[in-house]
Design brief:
Largest sheet of chain A: 9 strands, mixed
Chains: A alpha/beta (392), B mainly alpha (77), C mainly alpha (366), D alpha+beta (513)
Radius of gyration of chain A: 25 Å
Distance between the termini of chain B: 52 Å
Order of helices and strands of chain B: HHH
Structural class of chain B: mainly alpha
Helix content of chain A: 25-40%
Number of helices of chain B: 3
Largest interface: B-C, 34 and 36 residues
Number of helices of chain A: 16
Oligomer: heterotetramer
Strand content of chain A: 25-35%
Number of domains of chain A: 2
Order of helices and strands of chain A: HEEHEHEEHHEHHHEHHEEHEEEHHHHEH
């Protein structure tokens, strides 16, 4: 007994003990700008509601969102602590959503805070809330996953793999881009579709058809740490092809005589080569890949060699144009080297990079970019000729 | 204050612990060096507890090597 | 004889390997990459070469008096007064290093793992066990290092294997893009921290190795330094391949951040605390090595019959010193990455040759 | 204070009747005197039987024996041969009785009373004859002992199913039956001023290191105690470090284990009155080796890795649980963390208290399980299961995760083949829990450093406790984590420094065709 008391005095004075039950497990963090101050929103899990043991049939919501404003992020956090019953615990943050206004203005402070705090890990995704504030995004309830942040995290992870126009960016990726002179960062945008007020309600989940939901949309272009604009969907796709970030993707090819044809891209690789004519750098980009035909909704006979060649040509042209669109808008509209062409030149021609380094932004504007695509059609599913062409 | 008392208790324990050992050693130097070093250690820690500024040996190193680093090393490389 | 234990050549090798890896495995990548950016691994290779050359120098010193430690023979070669002064000066080196190591460990733990625990509590706990190891004698704590070695190697292998999927070869290109200068600047710390800091204090251990021929010492040192150096170069390379030079330079503890990146199939993740074991093992051995050398040396200097009574008083002083040495982490980082290596250089390129010259002179005349 | 105690002791001794010391007393020529002497020194104990008789109607004699320790049949035969079979006129001499009349295998001649008394109390019979200053000590020892039965504490599936008994001589016989080598030497000595317990040292001459044998002898001779009732008494006297949680003396009740250890060059100490034989030097790895490892196919030796693993589990599981749930929550996966947090909602205790309570409960149950009469044993296990598993959880006192951790710990601690090792783990587990509760994983790790240092500093009869891991020996690794197939194990483990290193001839002889 004496020993027990001794142990208790030993442990009660302990400095870093955090009992699990006192922990407010934060899964998402939303940061916004409110006037001159920071607005911080955290999505905290109510474990009892989620865990299978207690059935999750309670009346409480599975997550709670706390929100406060402060001059610094830390101050806002401190205020949250006074309203939330538990300690805010940040090691399990899955996503950090940054409001568009804040992203346009003071991203670097956010990054400093996040990378300085030891509780943050580096494996969460950073997302920009497009056309809205971060806290509205955090308040959206989702149907399939109890924890909305998990839903956001997982669907971004999936969509990056399966669908081309998003890019999952972790803290390290972002910092690497910011520190490299030859590359500018991008972040994926997220948007709330539907009614903002209803989104936070339980009803939203209970209805079979969600009236309000979250959707990933395109990429936000940064110059240094400031958001300067958005790529369109096509440009985002082109961007991903250019930085070799496409694992699998679906594409649509217009048939020569009208109608569409679905392609499933299975293997792509992008090679970036830089060369110099005199002092003028040129980027040569070569995209190679293979695809399968998924769906034929036009009258083309895909058993014919000629037609396949034609389709390949159309497809290649389409991807090329996607890429060029992305390059164009980066060069003309944003003047921000989001593709890391500067990095490529640095790696391949370190000597010649030196004079370019300090005024790379201007140089990038006039950089000559050549895109060649060599995509091949390999297979076309379990049937040979299309039923459609038979019927016609 | 409590810290100082705790420290003194700890050093008393150390003395008690070493005493039996030192008793066997008939060398006077052993006892003296133990006592002197323990005294120095105690004094330093008590001074540290009351925030008395102490000498930092790294300052000496900085003093010697800063000119070398800046004038020699930085120029050579 | 103050120390009756003897260690085998294999144990000696393991000791040097662990000490070489020491704290370097945790802090070195950052300071080297700060100068050399993505060529930091080349600094490592260069530094390893220099380190091996240094081994030859130290081997000559070890041949002077095969049965005595430096403190024991210093008054023979320098005369009784100057000898004592120089020996005392030399002992400051390992002792100060103990304090610095304690500080480093405390800083690491308070920033990364135990932010609310007072640094004194961490260092005192650590010091108590260093003292325990020291009191048990050379043979015992070196044997403990031997026992740790398999765990250490296992963790290292796992560490590299788990991170391999995240290697991006592009991150270390271009090779020598900025010329040789940054690479050489980076190698300043890479020579000093792992290689010099180990070798300098070895002159207190040489006589306690069981050898048949003196040359075994040289071979052991060469093998251990090569192994330790290679491990550090690999660590450097891994950090660069995963993060790129810029990001490594910006981190306080790059290899800890590396461990945070480990994620194998969403199952093996969040294991950085386990990886931290790796550094604690080597730092523990390095700290014990320094502390042991300084207490034994002091006892020999004062001609005591036992060094054990000195351990607690010196431990207390080391803890006070560890708190005193740096008012802030910025100061610490600056002194440690800029000026301390020069101190290492002074010790091993001026002090040690001095011993060698005087020693040879003495042996010739007697 | 010490002096006062001593004085008190003196006083107590002074008040008691002074005990006579008979050991140096010589035998008196008159029979009467001798009988009285013996009766008096044993205090007329009821189990001492004196049978007086006449040989050839002239010579007075007496046989004295202890009832219960003696084979009555033999005494009967003795008396028969003395009283009936001596016929004729030839005057019987003392020498004749010893040489040609007594048909008993072991007879000793003594002149001092002390040795006679010891013999008498060990079951021998004393033969006094009128007018002689020597007496005969006749071996008639026989008492009801347990038969050789199955080993209870170290059972195996495959391997010999016999265990030692409480009788020394049976035990030495069991060892002899396994090693029929003239170099198996068994030395005998008696320890304990009152119990005079027989203790035997067995070793294979030429295999065991002479220095270690000598060390064992000298340590045994240093023991000054009135009684030895079990090997544990001796163990505590001869072990190297008293204040270590780790055992440096191995004990076993399996004759095959003893034989195997003797063949490796170790020394066995067999104590009369207990079926547990001590083996020295004992090394750390030895406590994880079961005799069965050597009988089953060699790949079975992989199981030792499992044993070492469970050693760490039973040592670390509760402390790791405390460290991770209260310090390093970031180590848990998000979903696991959420479900743990849900379990812990409403648990009134901090994790450390919860863990200590549960671990304590388990220790209580375990202790109760051992001490209880076997009949009640099953009741205990039912109560334990309900208390630990069901009720505590339903009442919201402990979390299910904690129940899992404690049960894993408990089961893991039973895997260690040597019981003594699991006792030491018990204490260390609590120490580690305190470290974990104050410093998290850092504390655990530092404590493990300390533990390793301690293990490295231990020695058992001069042999480093952790060998062959530290100091490392490549050749000896064949019998540490794995057991190599027998043909691959040419040499005995080298850390014991045997005189004869080789276990088998290096070249295998080709079978004749």
């Amino acid at each position: 007994m004496l020993l027990m008391i001794l142990m208790l005095t030993f442990t009660s004075g302990c400095w870093d003990v955090r009992e699990l039950s006192d922990l407010g497990i934060t899964v998402a963090l939303g940061l916004d700008k409110k006037g001159d101050e920071f607005n911080v929103a955290v999505q905290v899990v109510n474990p009892g509601e989620i865990s299978r043991i207690s059935g999750g049939a309670g009346t409480k919501k599975p997550v709670t969102v706390y929100e406060e404003t402060g001059e610094t992020i830390t101050e806002a956090f401190r205020k949250i602590l006074t309203t939330s019953p538990n300690n805010i615990y940040l090691s399990h943050v899955r996503v950090v959503v940054i409001g568009e206004e804040l992203a346009k203005d003071r991203m670097k402070y956010v990054l400093d805070f996040i990378s300085r705090n030891h509780e943050f890990r580096t494996d969460f995704f950073l997302i920009v809330a497009k056309d809205s504030t971060a806290d509205t995004i955090l308040k959206v309830m989702t149907a399939t996953e109890n924890v909305p942040a998990n839903k956001i995290y997982e669907s971004l992870e999936k969509s990056e793999e399966l669908y081309a126009p998003t890019k999952a960016v972790t803290l390290d990726d972002l910092k690497m881009d910011l520190l490299n002179k030859g590359k500018q960062p991008v972040l994926t945008g997220i948007r709330l579709i539907g009614d903002e007020d209803r989104a936070a309600s339980e009803e939203n989940v209970k209805n079979l058809k969600n009236t309000s939901k979250l959707k990933y949309e395109n990429l936000a272009v940064f110059k240094k740490d400031r958001l300067i604009g958005w790529l369109s969907e096509d440009e985002s796709k082109g961007y991903n092809y250019l930085i070799n970030n496409v694992v699998r993707a679906n594409g649509v090819v217009t048939c020569p005589d009208g109608g569409k044809l679905g392609m499933n891209l299975i293997k792509t690789k992008t090679k970036l080569q830089s060369e110099f004519t005199g002092d003028q750098p040129i980027m040569n980009i070569e995209i190679t890949g293979e695809g399968n035909i998924d769906e034929v909704s036009c009258g083309i006979d895909i058993t014919k060699q000629d037609n396949i060649a034609k389709l390949e040509q159309i497809w290649n042209q389409r991807i090329t144009s996607l890429c060029l669109k992305a390059v164009d808008s980066a060069q003309e509209e944003f003047q921000s080297d989001i593709f890391g062409f500067g990095e490529v030149i640095h790696r391949q021609h370190p000597r010649k990079w030196k004079p370019l380094k300090d005024h790379w932004d201007e140089e990038f504007k006039d950089l000559e970019v050549k895109v060649t695509t060599k995509l091949k059609i390999r297979r076309f599913g379990t049937i040979t000729d299309s039923i459609v062409s038979e019927l016609e | 204050m409590w810290k100082v008392i705790g420290l003194l208790l700890v050093s008393a324990a150390i003395v008690q612990f070493e005493y039996s050992h030192l008793k066997k050693i008939r060398n006077r130097m052993d006892r003296w060096s133990f006592a002197v070093l323990l005294g120095v250690g105690l004094m330093l820690s008590i001074m540290k507890m009351y925030d008395v500024p102490l000498f930092n040996p790294l300052q000496a190193i900085e003093f010697i090597y800063k000119p070398i680093y800046e004038n020699v090393f930085n120029r050579v490389l | 004889m103050l120390e009756k234990g003897r260690i085998s050549v294999a144990q000696f090798t393991i000791l040097i390997f662990l000490v070489t890896t020491g704290d370097s495995i945790l802090v070195l990548p950052s300071s080297v990459a700060g100068e050399a950016k993505n060529d930091a691994w080349l600094s490592g290779i260069f530094a390893l070469g220099i380190g091996l050359l240094l081994v030859l120098l130290f081997y000559q010193v070890s041949k002077l008096f095969p049965d005595l430690t430096f403190v024991e023979y210093s008054d023979r070669i320098f005369g009784s007064f100057l000898g004592k002064v120089l020996a005392g000066f030399f002992l400051l080196y390992p002792f100060l290093s103990v304090a610095l190591l304690l500080r480093e460990l405390g800083d690491f733990l308070t920033t990364q793992i135990l932010p609310h625990t007072p640094i004194e509590a961490i260092t005192i706990l650590f010091m108590v066990f260093v003292i325990y190891g020291t009191r048990l004698g050379l043979e015992t704590w070196v044997r403990a290092g031997q026992v740790f070695l398999p765990f250490f190697l296992l963790l290292v292998v796992l560490f590299f294997a788990f991170l391999a999927p995240q290697f991006h070869l592009d991150n270390i290109k271009p090779i020598l893009g900025e010329g040789v200068k940054p690479m050489l600047r980076g190698s300043l710390t890479f020579i000093a921290f792992p290689f010099m800091e180990t070798l300098i204090v070895l002159i207190m251990i040489f006589p306690y190795v069981k050898i048949k021929k003196q040359i075994e010492l040289r071979n052991a040192m060469l093998i251990a330094q090569t192994a330790g150096g290679t491990l550090l170069i690999l660590m450097m390379l891994t950090a660069l391949l995963v993060f790129g030079g810029e990001l490594v330079a910006h981190q306080q503890y790059p290899s800890y951040s590396l461990a945070k990146k480990i994620n194998i199939g969403k199952f093996l993740e969040r294991i950085e605390a386990i990886i931290a074991i790796l550094w604690l093992i080597t730092i523990f051995i390095k700290a014990t090595f320094y502390f042991y050398s300084s207490t034994l040396g002091l006892a020999q200097l004062l001609r005591l019959q036992d060094y054990r009574p000195l351990t607690f008083p010196l431990g207390i002083i080391a803890i006070v010193l560890s708190i005193e040495v740096s008012p802030s982490i910025t100061y610490y980082n600056e002194v440690i990455s800029k000026y301390w290596p020069l101190f290492d250089f002074t010790m091993s390129l001026i002090f040690i040759p001095l011993i060698l010259v005087f020693g040879l002179f003495y042996l010739k005349n007697n | 204070m010490k002096r006062a105690k001593r004085r008190k002791n003196l006083k107590e001794h002074g008040s008691k009747p002074v005990q006579q010391n008979h050991s140096t007393l010589h035998i008196h020529p008159t029979l009467e005197n001798n009988i009285n002497e013996i009766k008096q020194s044993i205090g007329n104990s009821m189990d001492i039987i004196v049978r007086e008789f006449l040989i050839q109607e002239k010579l007075n004699g007496a046989i004295i024996y202890t009832k219960g320790l003696t084979d009555l049949q033999m005494v009967q035969e003795l008396l028969e041969s003395l009283m009936l079979q001596i016929n004729g006129d030839k005057w019987i001499q003392y020498e004749d009785i010893k040489k040609s009349i007594l048909t008993v295998s072991q007879i000793e001649e003594h002149k001092e009373m002390g040795q006679l008394l010891t013999g008498l109390l060990s079951g021998d019979s004393i033969l006094f004859l009128e007018g002689y200053e020597t007496a005969l000590l006749i071996n008639t020892r026989q008492w009801k002992g347990r038969d050789v039965s199955e080993p209870i504490t170290q059972p195996v599936v495959r391997g010999p199913q016999e265990a030692f008994t409480e009788t020394l001589i049976t035990n030495t016989a069991l060892i002899r039956r396994k090693i029929r080598d003239e170099n198996l030497w068994i030395e005998n000595r008696q320890i304990g001023t009152r119990t005079k317990t027989d203790v035997a040292i067995a070793y294979i001459n030429g295999v065991a290191d002479d220095a270690i044998v000598e060390e064992v002898r000298s340590r045994l001779d240093k023991i000054k105690i009135d009684g030895i009732l079990e090997g544990g008494y001796i163990e505590e006297y001869i072990q190297d470090s008293t204040y270590s949680p780790f055992p440096t003396v191995y004990n076993t009740e399996r004759p095959d284990t003893v034989a195997a250890n003797l063949l490796e060059g170790r020394i066995a100490i067999i104590v009369d009155g207990t079926p547990f034989v001590l083996i020295v030097p004992a090394l750390f790895v030895q406590f994880f080796q079961a005799s069965e490892d050597y009988y089953l196919r060699s790949d079975f030796g992989v199981i030792r890795i499992l044993r070492l693993f469970t050693f760490f589990i039973s040592l670390l599981a509760p402390s790791l649980y405390i460290a991770i749930t209260t310090f390093h929550q970031e180590m848990l996966q998000t979903s696991l963390l959420i479900s743990l947090a849900a379990q812990l909602e409403g648990i009134p205790f901090p994790a450390f208290v919860e863990a200590s309570l549960m671990a304590l409960t388990f220790e209580i149950l375990r202790e109760a399980g051992i001490r209880m009469p076997k009949v009640i044993g099953s009741a205990i296990s039912i109560v334990g299961a309900i208390v630990l598993g069901e009720a505590a959880y339903t009442a919201g006192l402990v979390s299910p995760a904690m129940v899992i951790v404690v049960s894993i710990t408990a089961i893991a601690s039973f895997v260690t083949p040597a019981f003594t090792m699991s006792i030491s783990i018990r204490i260390l587990r609590f120490v580690l829990m305190i470290f974990a509760a104050t410093f998290g994983l850092y504390g655990i790790l530092i404590a493990l450093f300390g533990l390793t240092l301690h293990l490295c500093s231990l020695r058992s009869f001069g042999v480093p406790y952790l060998s062959p891991i530290g100091p490392f020996n490549m050749n000896d690794q064949k019998d540490v984590l794995f057991r190599f197939p027998w043909p691959a194990m040419h040499n005995r483990p080298s850390f014991l420094q045997q005189q004869d290193q080789q276990r088998q001839s290096t070249e295998r002889k080709e079978p004749k065709r």
